[in-house]
Write a structure and sequence with these properties.
Strands 1-2-3 form a 3-stranded antiparallel β-sheet. A hairpin with a 5-residue loop joins strand 2 and strand 3. It has 2 domains: 85 residues, DNA polymerase, domain 1 (Orthogonal Bundle), CATH 1.10.150.130; 181 residues, Orthogonal Bundle (hpI Integrase, Chain A), CATH 1.10.443.10. Helices cover 58% and strands 4% of the residues. The radius of gyration is 23 Å and the shape is globular. It contains 12 helices and 3 strands. With 300 residues, the protein is mainly alpha-helical.
């Protein structure tokens, strides 16, 4: 890989990190994808890359049997990179314009039933400060549908519990308001008033302080939430792969099953496009079909 390629990759990373405000995960993935591409190019100049060379690279990576999702991301990283180089006038034409991602079959998101949710929540031991904190977190994830990264980034200034509201900042730093159930609010209030101090004895909390902390007093990271879920799901032997995002899926599915308007659910989830929200209508429809096939005497 030549020095110019390294320089442009570093500048691109800064562009998607600062100007485009991509998530940390996306920045790492895109840069990793592009590094593989630049290593494959070897000493060839990225300014000399044409459509045929990109297609040759895509044929090359087929041998690794990547999933359609991973292949689509690798193509997206190339297209974004060359769109950036074209915008910056590093290249005169964009060689990635005609490159298309493979069609991905739509898979229905995993979700939990109300019974499964309650089983998980009720099996979290709340007789320890960390246990109570984790129960509060999962209550909030299910009650609000927020992403685990949004929850991790919550500060005291984001709370308006008198109105059962929490301000969150989603993808692209987009601000929105999520609503909190009375049950989740009670857990959160108890955690703030008594439990948080037991986790880390600190002075009076500032508005900019994180709500959820670890025993050192630092902001609780998303991986800690994932581990807490993995621990309790393992103990009750639930035959599902449960992640924080599954709680978000479960929230959306339940809202639509209970008759919530699709646009309202879109707003609460912070989806930029309603097509992202519509997948949950397919989940609800599939559940209706299954119930019909089981219950109706002439369904089969």
């Amino acid at each position: 890989m030549n020095e110019d390629s390294k320089k442009y990759l570093q500048e691109f990373r800064l562009y998607i990190e600062v100007e485009k405000n991509f998530s940390k995960h996306t920045v790492i993935a895109y840069c990793s994808d592009l590094l593989s591409f630049l290593v494959w190019l070897d000493n060839r100049d990225i300014r000399d890359v044409n459509y045929n060379l990109i297609k040759e690279y895509l044929l090359y990576i087929q041998q690794f049997n990547y999933s359609k999702t991973t292949t689509a991301r690798k193509i997206a990283s190339l297209r974004t990179f060359y769109r950036y180089l074209y915008r910056e006038r590093v290249i005169e034409t964009n060689p990635a314009v005609g490159v298309h991602s493979p069609k991905r079959g739509k898979s229905l998101p995993e979700f939990l039933t109300e019974t499964e949710i309650e089983k998980i929540l009720n099996n979290i031991k709340i007789d320890t400060p960390a246990g109570y904190r984790n129960r509060t977190i999962l209550e909030l994830l299910y009650a609000t549908g927020m992403r685990v990264s949004e929850l991790s980034n919550l500060n005291f200034e984001n709370l308006n519990l008198d109105e059962n509201e929490i301000k969150v900042f989603g993808k692209g730093a987009k601000e929105r308001i999520v609503l909190v159930s009375d049950r989740a609010k009670k857990f959160l209030q108890t955690y703030i008033k008594t439990v948080r101090y037991l986790i880390y004895k600190s002075d009076k909390n500032k508005q900019t302080d994180p709500i959820f902390i670890n025993k050192e007093g630092y902001r609780l990271q998303t991986q800690s939430v994932r581990l807490a879920i993995k621990d309790v799901v393992g103990k009750i032997e639930l035959p599902k792969h449960v992640t924080p995002h599954v709680f978000r899926h479960s929230f959306a599915t339940k809202m639509l099953e209970k008759g919530a308007d699709l646009r309202v659910v879109q707003e609460l989830l912070g989806h930029s496009s309603i097509s992202n929200t519509q997948i949950y209508t397919h989940v609800s429809t599939e559940r209706l079909r299954q119930s019909y096939n089981v219950a109706h005497p002439r369904a089969n």
